[in-house]
Amino acid sequence: YKGAVLPDGTNIKLWDGKMDAWAPDVHLVGDTYYLYYSAVRDVAFDGHNLAAIGVATSTTMDIGSWKDLGSTGIQSNDSSEFNAIDPDLFVEDGRNYMIFGSYEEGLYQAAMNNPPTSVVPDSYAKLAYEPAGSHADEGANMFKYGDYNYLFYSNGVCCGFDTKKPAAGEEYKIKVCRSKSGVMDFRDSDGKLCTEGGGTIVLESHDNVYGPGGQGVYDDPTYGPIIYYHYVDTTIGYADGQKQFGWNKLDFSSGWPVTTAADTTAQPATTQTTQKN
């Protein structure tokens, strides 16, 4: 641990009490690093939906170099369809998009200005929605491979497995839908729309791996496309503080991402995703 990006917290204020900042996502655009974060009231998920996606910038990522620019303009309240948390910047052909959302009415995309510090008004579009149960989709990120944009996201219960273990199959898992580049038509491998509950499983509980999620995907210069995530190792323990960090290579030869068993590593996880109760 070297220090906090926002040692004094966020300057976003959506109510009179304290705001927490978490779920960071960092991207290098040009010569500037943009760190997006979720700003929520410190009693988040108590029946209220006050949240905003904030951004801080730095040219070095050194401790003390970050400048908090506050809200991007993507905000939610009790009457919003979406939950303004879990940001992920996606850049395609010089255009900036913010992928975000957790529970509520699903996962969304919004166009961002250039530089990507503020949202383009009235540019919101729904990408995915789980109509069943508590609508447990969150933590999405977009990855371009070939002619398709792949929407990876976590589905199910993420946390607190040591105190309340969900029914089998309801724990965290990683799903994906895809759409042709430039077309908002995300479907799973069976052709079902992602906005109607579609989603192909990429990684789920198996062997001693339980509840994988909170994923990210990027093109590694050595291994090619990889997916990284946190999970519970059932031989270690189910508490949030015992979660591990894992990664796998992804094989897109079929047109859909498939994890390989090789090159998986495990280390104590340093970040966790929070679910809506």
UniProtKB/TrEMBL annotation:
Keywords assigned by UniProt, alphabetized: Glycosidase, Hydrolase
Record keyword Hydrolase present: yes
GO-annotated molecular function: arabinan endo-1,5-alpha-L-arabinosidase activity
InterPro entries: GH43_arabinanases (IPR050727), Glyco_hydro_43 (IPR006710), Glyco_hydro_43_endo_a_Ara-ase (IPR016840), Glyco_hydro_beta-prop_sf (IPR023296)
Catalyzed reaction equations: Endohydrolysis of (1->5)-alpha-arabinofuranosidic linkages in (1->5)-arabinans
Enzyme class at the top of the EC tree: hydrolase
Gene Ontology BP, a term: arabinan catabolic process
EC number per UniProt: 3.2.1.99
Site (Important for catalytic activity, responsible for pKa modulation of the active site Glu and correct orientation of both the proton donor and substrate): D86
Pathway listed: Glycan metabolism; L-arabinan degradation
Family, as annotated: Belongs to the glycosyl hydrolase 43 family.
Protein name per the record: arabinan endo-1,5-alpha-L-arabinosidase
